[in-house]
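User: Can you model how magnesium ion sits in this protein?
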Amino acid sequence: QSKHAGRNRFSRFDWGMKEKQSRTYELEMALRGALANGELVMHYQPIFETTTGRIAICEALMRWEHPTLGKISPAEFIPIAESCSLIEPMTAWAIEQACRDAMSWDDHVRVAVNISPVLLKTDGLPRAVIGALLASGLAARRLELEVTESIFLEDSGRTNMILSELQRIGLRLALDDFGTGYSSLGYLRHYKFDTIKVDQSFMRGVGENPRDRAIAQSVAYLARSLDVETVAEGIENEEQLRYARETGFTNVQGFVLARPMPADALLTMMQGRRESAPGVVTLADSRR
Ligand code: C2E
Ligand code: MG
Ligand code: MG
Ligand code: MG
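Assistant: Here's the modeled complex, given as structure tokens:
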């Protein structure tokens, strides 16, 4: 009897795997046409400077809407793109689109593009970046690339070379989702990031969890001492916003301030904010 139950469990498990594989296969096939069919769009989420309430950076986030499959999350399609080498043309397109869109913003606002770890193993990235800067006319200092700690897991010689080359061109580098991966202080010792983004999971707990608070505080302090900017990610309520401000995070990002939005909606928001007087970031910044 137990044998039987075991077999049933196995066959159910097997079914789940098969379904997942066929969904992945279906998405991979659909993704092959997505770029050419204009199904991919970049949305932008404003990131605010804590002391002035100004928009400092806009993070470019890719969106995919397939005619029959509907909206698919980047958390689902980016890993698929990474596994079948579609990530290269998709990223080249994303950087170029982001640079073009950023040309209509105020000169102090940067655009941040997420870069998959797999792209730091090939030499296509610096070429794509230079191509996008030349095609758009955007100043290199206004382009920030977000990478996660996982880029350091292997082949660090090559990764370091590519990162240094990008910084030599004048780009800024941000360490994304800090605290969720391997978070070795060695990375910070050997590599000079311009920005550290503290993962949203730490902001989630700052209200009730003293450990999350202690970690967020220490990272903000460490970054300040190293002259590195910080972003508190995932600010969802007033308490978290106040906390991030008091802790001294340079910038704040989160749904309570602004959600990712299409380029034209962002422009409208930026134009509406022009006349308002600067001051520390508050929830009013999301409304004005
Ligand atoms: P990420 O780079 O850490 O981006 C931040 C994610 O957090 C975005 O999700 C954003 O919508 C979400 N977020 C922002 N504020 C809040 C908040 O207050 N609460 C919560 N719960 N979430 C918030 P999104 O757009 O679904 O992207 C998910 C991930 O997919 C990104 O995480 C990034 O790793 C990846 N991704 C998105 N676009 C691209 C892209 O163009 N290229 C690459 N390589 N990866 C991308
Ligand atoms: Mg990011
Ligand atoms: Mg992040
Ligand atoms: Mg994240």
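A couple of observations from the model: The chain has a mean pLDDT of 90. The radius of gyration is 21 Å.
User: Helpful, thanks.
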